[in-house]
Protein: Serine aminopeptidase S33 domain-containing protein
Organism: Adiantum capillus-veneris
Amino acid sequence: MAMTDAAELNFWGDLPENEYYRSQGVVNKKEYFTTPYGKLFTQSWLPASGEVKGVVCCTHGYGSDSNWMFQKIPIAFAQWGYAAFASDMLGHGRSEGLHGYVEDIEKLASTSLDFYKSVRDCNSYAGLPKFLFGESMGGGATLLMVLQDSRGWDGAMFSAPLFEIPEPMKPSRIHLFGYGLLFGLAEPWAVMPDSNMVKRAVKDPGKGKVIGSNPRRYRGRPRVGTMRQLSRMCDVIQKRCHEIEIPILMLHGTSDDLAAHEGSQMVCEKAKSSDKTIKLYDGMYHSLIQGESDENIARVLADLREWIDERSSKKTCNTE
């Protein structure tokens, strides 16, 4: 079901939405996708001209959605010639589910994966290389997607993925244990300590204000079940990342307070894949592509583009 949003607030200002996308050289489309666990709000960003050379499915981070500044990432992919897609994860943005609540992290991943597989297997993109991209919690969810179904994916890219929670950010085991005694009743409660994630994630104060103004951003305290599931996600990744066989790219700042860069190093070291790349950016924060200086953002995007273009050209050469 196609959607339009009339007179909606946007981070780029008063320019009508279609005109903004036109100025970026992309065509945007919004739809809902029905899954067994609820409807997902989805978007696509296609190159306005030229042939599509590949497909990228992008997953946002905790509390965010696909429509605010996160979409700068799929827009960049579309500008490079790729058909980019994203969904708001369950409990985020305009998708169904209690806002900010992750009931089951593997169900969260598989639900978005259902949409991405519908894109991957679409006849319109037959023969083209297909990639996954995930940022922050979306990076962890993306790795779970690869573990759930790696067939047909030519690589996965990760920006500041949450594979390991830094010690100061780890949820209190005492709190989780205590709330766990309430037979699941406390799981949706928004009572966990708030660590001011936007300030910790973003180095550029001006960009931080824009990110924080997202009208669909989850602003409540972390929910008990969400923090329990994020811890579980990291445990699963650390135990199973050796199973990863597809090409992977890790992008991570060394001053990331929200997702330890050591987690990216660990996954790169353990993964079975023969094509593993990690880029560590000295002094950069968690939000590499939306929250750093323009110079730093350009550097990260250049590394991202070089990696995907190289692997896309290999796929094209092998199928000709």
